[in-house]
Every structure is written in C-alpha cells, then in structure tokens.
C-alpha cells in the first residue's frame, strides 16, 4: 500500500489552499527516503520530480508550482507567472495575487512561513532561517503583499515545522548577533558557553513586529522527528552524506 502524502494545515489559514509537508508519502529511498523535494539532495531526479508532483497534487491539484533558488536572504519576489526552474530568482520569499500559482519554499530546519490576506486575495511564502529572519525576510514579504493590496492587520500567517529550541544549540558568537533585540527571550542557557535558540519564537516575534493580524506556530520539531521530517542538523550530527528537503506550499 502506498503511503499517502501527509499535509499539515494551520487553523490560521483555514479556507486557503496550503500545506506544510514532511517526508511521508514519497518515493525517494536511502537517507533521503520519503517525500524529498530538494534537487540538491543527491537524489534520483525522477524521484524528486514525482515527489513534487505528489506534493502539489495533495495541496492544490492543477496549480502551477513556483519556487526560488534560496540563498538565506531577505529578498522577496512578486510572481505574475511561473518561470523555468533554471531561471529561478535568487531570493527567499515570494508573493502573488494570481490564482492558479502554487508558491513553494523548501526547508530542512529553517522556518517555513505561509501568509494570506483572504479578502485582498494575496498569498506569500517565506523561507526564514536565522539569517533571513534576522535580515528582514518577514518584513520584506509583508511589504510585498501590501504592494499587491493586502493589509497587514488582515494577514494571517503560520510557521511550519522547523528546528525546535531544545534541538538548536548555538554559541556565544551567535547570540551576540541578536544583541539589542531583547535576545534573552529567545535563548535558554545550555552547556558552558552555549545556548538553545528558539527560532520559531523569533520568527513569531518578527511577524508581530511586521503588524501581521494573526500568526500561528505549529510547534513541530524537524530535528526531533526523523520519521516525519528531514533535518539538516540531524543529518550533520549523524555524518550523513546529504539530507532531504520538505515543501511548504500555498495558493489562491
């Protein structure tokens, strides 16, 4: 029996075609076994293509997928029509007001953020690792949605599966980057000279600062749930040669 694609949905985005996906329901094998959608995971290209097809069909059948060449930036692109995969912009968020487009970001510990203003008919997706979140990718996404007619206070957002605080150890130098931002709330003391960083809470705070009307944190730890999610840090700690990536998708 073929395992179905698991689609995790947020109450904050109820009524909007969206989904946070993990590794369940795909055809890849080995260390990236499951629904790997990453082209850079040293996976069979046909398997990745089939996984992407399954993922899209599970969220919005018939929609045209649009993705980015993600670079941990704060850059957001407005999408009017799909581009060829070889022409993907270097950016980390995308927004649209065009029905029939399925916006997608890939993650493997970073926080995926899906956003929608239902009344204005505008949606967005952001890849928010610590660099992008710290650099302003949330504000860039909300501003781009505004330019399409969205209102900040009418935007609902959801933060999908990402590495949890208990799994995210960082050093003093990392914590120093957040000085002056009320950093104490995002860092719990760990072993000597180390802290546990709460990426999800930090991204939620960025959504609040951007004036988003409602935000939901799903509280799902990519690192801690090997059966359900891919994780870059877990693969690194296991000395694995590569790691899978999962999709987060949204459409009008």
What features would you describe in this structure?
This protein has 252 residues and is of the alpha+beta class. It has a single domain, classed as CNF1/YfiH-like putative cysteine hydrolases (4-Layer Sandwich). Helix content is 21%, strand content 25%. The strands form 3 sheets. Strands 4-5-8-7-9-13 form a 6-stranded mixed beta sheet. A 5-stranded mixed beta sheet has the order 1-2-14-6-3, covered by helices on one side. A hairpin with a 4-residue loop joins strand 11 and strand 12 (194-197). The two termini are 32 Å apart. The model has no long low-confidence stretch (mean pLDDT 96).
Strand content: 15-25%
- Assign an overall shape: globular
Q: Which stretches are poorly predicted, pLDDT < 50 over at least 5 residues?
A: none
Largest sheet properties: 6 strands, mixed
Distance separating the two termini: 32 Å
**What's the number of helices?**
6
User: Helix content range of the residues, please?
Assistant: 10-25%
CATH class division: Alpha Beta
How many beta-strand segments? 14
Main β-sheet, spatial strand arrangement: 4-5-8-7-9-13
What is the C-alpha radius of gyration, as a whole number of Å?
17 Å
Mean pLDDT: 96
Instruction: Compute the number of structural domains.
Output: 1
CATH architecture field: 4-Layer Sandwich
CATH topology: CNF1/YfiH-like putative cysteine hydrolases
| SS-based class | alpha+beta
Q: What do we call the CATH homologous superfamily?
A: CNF1/YfiH-like putative cysteine hydrolases
Order of helices and strands: EEHEEEEEEHHEEHEEHEHE
